[in-house]
Recover the amino acids of this structure.
């Protein structure tokens, strides 16, 4: 099928295949039980498939959409063999993801008409937020872009230290203050520094506390307001980082953060260590926010631009 033509380099695709291995193995072992002894897709197979998708962390609402699409195919084609089910699943899930993730990105890129391009990164502690920022900085620097990092998660000394480690590793400047400083002040200083350095991209780390959503909302709003004094339409991207290995908990975090601030893109991390990779499909569909990046390994190159066709191809291979 032309949708699934290979558009990644072979080494990236190999990393993606390997990163989704646990999810794929778990899914197919459930799927083979669901269709055991059946040659035709009937109501019983569809009921079993529904259970397979839900237990693979695709999420109930997205699962129902997928089942509905397959039911339409069954009634239209009159006879569908269970041997065709994998192909149909690939097609229907890719079509579903196409409705949210429009276009096909194959590399790390930012709009050329925004300078500096300002990314604000949000997410709870422990999801791989700082690591994602470091890996993004690496990718953008590799393209010859000037990157500046801002350590505006001032509530944990460890967060500032960790971002400093990444800044040193990648070789990009970082703007930071002492623990307990005003996050908005750090963001302001970061933008000021970026403008003076003629930087292409600014990536701001923010605190990851959800226990009091009102405080979080107020804090993020203040960070935005202060940045807009220097760059009128900042931030250009609010990237929410989610830990894919937490499965349904990632849905809950997405729900909370999209209420607390205007999230414009998603990164789903830690997919290589989990069988819950189906969560990417559900999150991408449910929140109608594009998944921009996925983490499929610990290496610096293992943050990938999310490509729906490559992902589905690897998941259902």
């Amino acid at each position: 099928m032309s949708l699934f033509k290979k558009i990644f380099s072979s080494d990236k695709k190999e990393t993606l295949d390997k990163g989704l291995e646990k999810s794929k193995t778990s899914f197919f072992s459930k799927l083979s039980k669901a269709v055991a002894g059946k040659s035709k897709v009937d109501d019983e197979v569809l009921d079993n498939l529904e259970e397979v998708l839900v237990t693979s962390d695709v999420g109930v609402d997205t699962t129902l959409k997928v089942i509905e699409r397959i039911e339409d195919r069954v009634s239209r084609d009159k006879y569908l063999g269970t041997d065709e089910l994998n192909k149909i699943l690939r097609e229907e899930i890719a079509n579903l993801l196409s409705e949210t993730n429009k276009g096909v990105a194959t590399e790390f890129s930012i709009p050329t008409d925004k300078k500096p391009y300002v990314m604000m990164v949000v997410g709870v502690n422990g999801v791989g937020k700082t690591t994602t920022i470091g890996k993004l900085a690496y990718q953008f620097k590799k393209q010859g872009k000037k990157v500046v990092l801002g350590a505006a998660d001032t509530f944990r000394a460890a967060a500032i230290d960790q971002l400093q480690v990444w800044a040193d590793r990648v070789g990009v400047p970082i703007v930071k203050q002492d623990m307990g400083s005003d996050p908005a002040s750090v963001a302001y200083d970061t933008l000021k520094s970026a403008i003076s350095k003629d930087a292409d991209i600014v990536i701001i780390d923010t605190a990851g506390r959800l226990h009091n959503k009102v405080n979080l909302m107020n804090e993020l709003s203040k960070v935005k307001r202060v940045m807009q004094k220097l760059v009128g339409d900042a931030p250009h991207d609010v990237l929410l980082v989610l830990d894919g290995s937490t499965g349904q908990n990632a849905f809950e975090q997405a729900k909370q953060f999209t209420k607390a601030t205007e999230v414009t893109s998603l990164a789903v991390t830690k997919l290589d260590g989990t069988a819950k990779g189906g969560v990417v499909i559900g999150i991408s569909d449910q929140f109608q926010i594009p998944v921009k990046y996925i983490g499929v390994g610990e290496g610096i190159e293992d943050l990938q631009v999310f490509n729906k066709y490559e992902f589905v191809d690897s998941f259902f291979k």
Remarks:
- The longest strand covers residues 237-243.
- Residues 117-307 form a domain with the Rossmann fold fold (CATH 3.40.50.300).
- The mean pLDDT is 88.
